[in-house]
Amino acid sequence: MRYSAKQQASWLRIGVSLCLLLFLVLLPLPKWIQWWQPQWLLLGAIYWSLQAPSRFGVFSAWTVGLLLDCVTEGLFGLNALAMAVIAYFVYLLHHRIRLFPWWQQCFTVFVLVGLYQTLMRVLHSLLGDPVAEGFYYYLSALISGLLWPALRLLSVGSARKTAVFN
Q1: Using CA atoms, how far apart are residues 123 and 132, in angstroms rounded to an integer?
Q2: String of DSSP letters for 16-39
Q3: Which pTM value belongs to this model?
Q4: Cβ contact 145:106 at 8 Å
Q5: What was the pLDDT predicted at 61?
Q6: Residue 93, phi then psi, degrees to nearest 5
Q7: CATH tag for 5-162 (out of 1.10.10, 1.10.1760, 2.60.40, 1.10.1510)
Q8: Which of 28, 140, 155, 165 gives the lowest tally of CB atoms within 10 Å of its CB?
């Protein structure tokens, strides 16, 4: 199957953006600021599931989750499962979420990232791993929700040039 130049550019754009977000995940941070680090790859998966659901869906999010499991040396498949669940919810609601105003999208992203973190927390506790106590575990979801408008502004303008949208 041959892809047109615009389709190849859109696949390249998705890959490059996810590689940049993976780089942000791998940046070494002091221990006290790690709770504030956004879920960069999850934000990218949510963004691409919203903007190009025919190109980036549940399987793509699952693959990104497996990559995240590999580079963070986590238990293989946990991030993949959680990202696939979130991508499925985004796929079900992507027409509605696209129509939301920016503040409602921020809240939706906050809820989705919070759901991801809750799912990860439940999976870790079922496996007997120690889990963080308290609500500061969800600071990352709050920061991810607050960063959503900036992420959209950075990517929407250049995405129109490469015709990534469906």
Answers
A1: 13
A2: HHHHHHHHHHHS---GGGGGG---
A3: 0.87
A4: yes
A5: 94
A6: -110, 10
A7: 1.10.1760
A8: 28
Long-range own/partner contacts, residues 93-96 (CB < 8 A, 24 or more apart): 94/49, 94/50, 94/53
The CA distance from 52 to 47, in Å, is: 8
Write the DSSP symbol of residue 3. P
Residue 136 CA neighbour count, 13 Å, CB half: 7
| Beta carbons within 8 Å of 152's beta carbon, 6+ residues apart | 47, 102, 105
Closest CA to 140 of 46, 69, 45, 39: 39
Beta-carbon count within 10 A of 79 CB: 28
DSSP label at 137?
Answer: G
Determine the Cα–Cα distance for residues 125 and 131; give it in Å rounded to an integer: 6
Residue ranges of domains in the chain: 5-162
- At 8-57, the pLDDT tens digits run 567 888 889 999 999 999 988 888 888 888 999 999 999 999 988 888 99
pLDDT tens profile 73-122: 878 889 999 999 999 999 999 999 999 999 999 999 999 999 999 999 99
> Does residue 73 sit in helix, strand or coil?
coil
Residue from 65, 83, 73, 93 nearest 119 by CA: 83
